[in-house]
Design a protein that fits this description.
By secondary structure, the protein is an alpha+beta fold. It has a domain of 82 residues: Thrombin, subunit H (Beta Barrel), CATH 2.40.10. It is built from two helices and six strands; from the N terminus they run ααββββββ. It has a six-stranded antiparallel beta barrel with strand order 1-2-5-4-3-6. Strand 3 and strand 4 form a beta hairpin. It starts with a helix and ends in a 5-residue tail after the last strand. 12% of the residues are buried.
Length: 299
């Protein structure tokens, strides 16, 4: 009985030993796999830690001790810091960075919305600005045209002012001329009154004398008075010839068969006396009382 138990125990031990050898072999292969995977995880954690901010104001990144990542549980005589510390630090930093990122996303979303609104407003403003620019271009062209018109009008005004100055000078000159003519007219009127008075005196004297004159053939009348100061003469014609004595008619003055001068009728004084202007350009000799007044042309 005891032998049988011993044999069974021996077989079990053998089986367990074989199983242990097999398990050892299998675990050895898994150990290498787990070791490689842990190394990759450590490298990945270390690399990720370099991209996660620590949350400090200086913007520094989380610093992870590679050796701490290798310690799973505290050791009695070894380090008490396990891989939980760097992992918790990394998770806290990542959470903080995620919170900031989410807040930034919210702000970015608001900013994008505001930017969209701003772009729309900017588009409206640009359209309005383009319209304003077009109006400004039109206004600038209008201003240029108006400035040209103003320059043209100023030139016209300058020319008109020059003409006005010339006209004013002419008006002043004409006013002076009119004043001179008025003076001359007054003088002539005075002379006319004197002449008419003189003629009346002569006519009165001649009328008292009867003024009878024997006229030769072709003779219209006879000089009865000559006034060289006033350059006129007075001659008498028959009453039947008075109607022919019209103003501005030119007559010849003879002394016998000699041509003396030429006269131009001015007016007729009743009853039969004629006042005539002596035409000095035709005068060959001084006219005298008794010279004959005839018609025709002198050769």
């Amino acid at each position: 009985m005891s032998k049988r138990l011993l044999m069974i125990s021996t077989v079990l031990l053998l089986v367990l030993g074989i199983a242990g050898v097999v398990m050892s072999y299998l675990l050895f292969e898994q150990r290498e796999t787990i070791k490689g995977r842990n190394l990759k995880l450590e490298n990945a954690i270390f690399s990720i830690a370099k991209t996660v901010e620590s949350g400090e104001d200086d913007g520094s990144m989380i610093q992870v001790d590679r050796e701490e990542l290798k310690i799973l549980t505290p050791q009695k005589d070894g380090p008490q810091v396990t891989m939980d510390k760097p992992l918790n630090m990394l998770m806290a930093g990542a959470q903080s960075q995620l919170d900031r990122l989410n807040a930034t996303r919210v702000v970015l979303s608001d900013t994008e919305e505001k930017l969209t609104n701003t772009e729309e407003e900017l588009k409206v403003t640009q359209d309005s600005l383009q319209v304003s620019n077009n109006k400004n271009i039109e206004l600038s062209a209008t201003i240029v045209d108006r400035n040209r018109e103003i320059v043209s009008k100023e030139n016209m005004i300058r020319d008109l002012e020059g003409e006005k100055t010339q006209l004013n000078a002419k008006v002043t000159e004409q006013a002076l001329t009119i004043a001179d003519l008025d003076v001359e007219k007054k003088s002539l009127e005075d002379d006319k009154e004197k002449l008419e008075l003189e003629v009346k005196k002569l006519v009165a004297i001649l009328s008292k004398d009867g003024g009878k004159t024997d006229l030769g053939e072709g003779q219209l009348g006879e000089i009865v008075s000559v006034d060289r100061d006033w350059n006129f003469c007075l001659f008498k014609v028959p009453e039947d010839k008075v109607r022919e004595m019209l103003p501005n008619i030119e007559l010849l003055i003879h002394r016998g068969n000699e041509f003396v001068s030429k006269v131009r009728i001015t007016k007729v004084v009743e009853p039969s006396f004629v006042v005539a202007e002596i035409m000095n350009d035709w005068q060959k000799a001084d006219m005298k009382q008794g010279d004959s007044v005839i018609t025709g042309s002198w050769r």
